[in-house]
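Researcher: Next entry in the queue.
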Amino acid sequence: MKKYGLVFVAGTVLAFLLCLFNFLTALTYIGFGTLLFGIVLSGTLASGDRMRANAQYKSGLPKNLFVQLIVFSLPFIIIYFTFL
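Model: Structure for this entry, 84 residues:
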């Protein structure tokens, strides 16, 4: 659980720095890019047979990497919709 808190704090600091220096387009691209990448890694966008095949394969990535990416993207998206 401590990992997710650190990831959220890192995302919040980076999002505030980007907002402070008025890089709102970078804020948008990083926020929605990491959210989309997290959704892709979670397997939500793949069909059932592909998910079954991917579950058989052992990769070096941790299984919850997609959750960390989604948690990282949350501060970017919150700040983006706040200043929209």
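Model: The chain has one domain: 2-82.
Researcher: Noted, moving on.
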